[in-house]
Design the sequence.
C-alpha cells in the first residue's frame, strides 16, 4: 500500500498547494453564527462519536455553553438532535462514550460543571436526560474510558490538583463511583509541570502525556499504579506533551506536542521499558513555506493516522510503516487564517464510525462530516448483497476492488464496529484487474445486528481494511404456514407486512402474493401438485426474513 500512496503523492506534488483538500470530500457542514463566541472567534471545542443500538451514527461537538448532537447516519439528511445546555461558558470540552452514555467534562475558570453524564437513548428519542456529578471535581480538561475494564479516567481536574481520578462504570454507568486516585508526583514523576494532561488506556495499561515531563506508561490494574516505561520530554522536542494514540496492534504510538514548530512523534512500543522515537512528521499545508505550524489531537485507525492539525485542518497519514509516515490526504477546515499564530482551525476529529465517515471540529467553523477517497481506502465494495436462509444461515455475495494485488482477504465481524475478529477467509475469484468476487453461505456469528469489513493482505505483506458494512438483526419473526403438505390452499401467518413467494427447487418463481400482518389464506395454482417448494417471506424492502420447505400434494 505504501508504494501506491507514494505514487499518488508524487503525482500531485506540483498541484497540492493552494488546494483546500486532497483525497477527502466534505459531505456535511454545520456552523451556527448565533452561537456565543469568544473575542478571538472561538465557538466550538472537541468532538466525539456515538454508535447507537440500531447502527445510528451520532456526532457530538462542544460549544461554549452546551453540547450538540447530530444524527449523521444518512449524510444526505443529517438531523440536528436535541442538545444539552449546561450554563456557564467553557472553551474546553472533552467527551467519551460507554454503552448508551456520553460523558463530558469542561475546563474553565469559574465553571464547575463536573462530570456530565448523558443518556444517549433519550437524545435519540428527542429529549435530554442527563446529570452532573460535581462531588469529586468542578473542572476537568480531558477524560478517557477503557471500555474493556469499564473504567473512566479524568485528567487535569481542578487545575491539575486532583491527579488522575478513576471511576468504576461496571455497576451503574449513570452513577459511577470512584475506584482510585493517582498523583504521579507520588510515584517519582516530577518536572516543571508533572500532571497528566491526556491519556490513552487499553486493558489497564495507561499511556500518559505528562506535559513537560514526557510520555509515561503505567500499569493501572491495581489501586496503586506502577510506572513500566517512560520517554523523557528531551526525547521529543522538549515541548508540551499534549496527547497521543496507540496503534491497533499496540506496536507503536503517535504523540503530539502542542507547541509551534514541533512535529508529530511516532514512538516504538515493542519494549515499553526501552521506548524510542521511530520517526517524526511535520509537513505544513496551509502555509507550506512556513515552519511554525502546530499539531493538536492524533488518532489511529488501521493503517491510517487522523490528525486534527489546527490551522492545517485534518491531515491523514499512511502509517503502515510508522518509521516512514506519509500524508495521503488532508482537508482544510478554515482557509482564511493568515498564519500559524495562536490555536485556530481543527481542534478534534473522530474517525471511528463504521460507515467510514470522519468528523472534524473547527474552533470557529463548526462541525464537518468528511468522506475519504478510494485512494486512501485500500479496498472498496462494488457489490455487497445478503440473504438470510434461516435464523442461522447467511448467504453473502460480494465484489470489491483494491489498489494492489492481494495475497489474502479475510472477512471480519464486530458487534460495535470498532473491535473486529476474523470470521472467514475468502477464496476470492480474481475476475478483472484488481477486482475480486466471492459468494457463499456462512453461519451468522450472532442473532443481533453486526458489522462486517475486509482485512486484506497484499503480496508484500501490507495489511489494509475496507469500509465497514452493517448487517441488521434477524427479526423475531413467527412465520408459519399450514397445512404442510398442502392441497388447494394454504394459510400463512406473518408478523410484518411484505411479500410471500413460492419458489421451485430449481429456482423458478411460481407464486408471489402481498401479505399483511396475521393469518391469511392463499389459493394455490393447480399446476403445483406433487412437488416441493421453498416458501419465502420478504419484508417491504424485499429482504428475505424466513423460509420453509412446503410440499404440495
Sequence:
Amino acid at each position: 500500500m505504501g508504494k501506491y500512496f507514494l505514487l499518488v503523492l508524487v503525482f500531485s506534488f506540483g498541484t497540492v498547494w493552494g488546494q483546500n483538500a486532497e483525497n477527502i470530500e466534505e459531505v456535511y457542514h454545520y456552523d451556527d453564527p448565533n452561537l456565543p463566541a469568544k473575542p478571538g472567534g472561538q465557538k466550538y471545542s472537541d468532538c466525539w462519536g456515538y454508535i447507537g443500538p440500531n447502527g445510528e451514527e451520532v456526532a457530538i461537538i462542544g460549544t461554549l455553553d452546551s453540547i450538540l448532537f447530530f444524527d449523521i447516519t444518512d449524510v444526505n439528511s443529517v438531523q440536528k438532535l436535541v442538545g444539552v445546555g449546561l450554563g456557564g461558558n467553557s472553551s474546553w470540552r472533552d467527551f467519551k462514550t460507554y454503552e448508551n452514555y456520553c460523558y463530558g467534562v469542561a475546563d474553565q475558570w469559574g465553571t464547575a460543571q463536573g462530570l456530565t453524564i448523558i443518556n444517549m437513548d433519550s437524545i435519540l428519542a428527542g429529549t435530554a436526560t442527563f446529570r452532573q456529578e460535581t462531588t469529586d471535581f468542578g473542572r476537568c480538561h480531558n477524560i478517557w474510558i477503557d471500555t474493556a475494564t469499564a473504567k473512566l479516567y479524568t485528567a487535569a481536574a481542578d487545575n491539575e490538583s486532583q491527579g488522575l481520578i478513576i471511576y468504576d462504570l461496571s455497576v451503574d454507568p449513570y452513577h459511577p463511583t470512584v475506584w482510585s486516585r493517582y498523583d504521579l508526583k507520588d510515584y517519582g514523576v516530577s518536572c516543571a509541570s508533572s500532571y497528566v494532561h491526556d491519556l490513552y488506556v487499553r486493558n489497564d495499561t495507561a499511556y500518559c502525556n505528562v506535559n513537560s515531563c514526557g510520555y509515561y506508561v503505567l500499569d493501572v490494574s491495581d489501586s496503586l499504579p506502577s510506572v513500566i516505561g517512560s520517554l523523557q520530554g528531551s526525547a521529543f522536542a522538549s515541548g508540551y506533551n499534549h496527547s497521543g494514540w496507540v496503534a491497533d496492534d499496540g506496536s507503536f504510538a503517535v504523540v503530539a506536542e502542542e507547541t509551534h514548530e514541533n512535529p508529530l512523534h511516532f514512538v516504538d512500543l515493542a519494549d515499553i521499558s526501552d521506548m524510542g522515537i521511530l520517526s517524526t512528521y511535520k509537513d505544513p499545508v496551509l502555509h507550506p513555506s512556513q515552519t511554525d505550524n502546530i499539531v493538536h489531537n492524533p488518532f489511529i485507525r488501521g493503517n491510517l493516522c487522523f490528525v486534527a492539525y489546527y490551522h492545517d485542518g485534518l491531515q491523514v497519514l499512511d502509517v503502515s510503516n510508522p518509521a516512514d509516515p506519509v500524508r495521503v490526504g488532508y482537508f482544510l477546515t478554515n482557509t482564511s487564517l493568515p498564519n500559524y499564530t495562536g490555536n485556530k482551525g481543527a481542534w478534534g476529529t473522530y474517525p471511528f464510525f463504521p460507515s467510514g465517515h470522519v468528523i472534524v471540529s473547527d474552533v470557529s467553523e463548526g462541525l464537518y462530516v468528511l468522506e475519504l477517497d478510494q485512494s486512501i481506502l485500500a479496498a472498496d465494495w462494488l457489490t455487497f448483497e445478503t440473504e438470510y436462509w434461516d435464523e442461522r444461515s447467511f448467504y453473502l455475495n460480494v465484489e470489491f476492488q483494491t489498489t494492489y494485488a492481494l495475497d489474502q482477504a479475510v472477512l471480519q465481524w464486530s458487534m460495535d464496529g470498532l473491535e473486529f475478529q476474523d470470521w472467514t477467509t475468502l477464496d476470492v475469484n480474481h475476475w478483472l484487474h484488481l477486482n475480486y468476487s466471492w459468494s457463499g453461505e456462512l453461519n451468522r456469528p450472532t442473532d443481533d445486528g453486526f458489522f462486517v469489513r475486509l482485512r486484506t493482505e497484499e503480496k508484500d505483506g501490507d495489511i489494509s481494511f475496507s469500509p465497514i458494512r452493517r448487517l441488521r438483526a434477524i427479526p423475531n419473526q413467527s412465520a408459519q404456514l399450514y397445512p404442510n403438505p398442502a392441497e388447494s390452499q394454504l394459510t400463512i401467518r406473518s408478523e410484518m407486512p411484505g411479500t410471500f413467494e413460492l419458489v421451485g427447487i430449481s429456482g423458478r418463481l411460481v407464486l408471489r402474493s402481498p401479505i399483511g400482518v396475521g393469518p391469511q389464506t392463499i389459493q394455490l395454482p393447480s399446476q403445483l401438485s406433487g412437488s416441493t417448494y421453498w416458501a419465502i417471506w420478504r419484508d417491504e424492502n424485499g429482504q428475505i426474513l424466513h423460509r420453509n420447505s412446503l410440499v404440495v400434494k
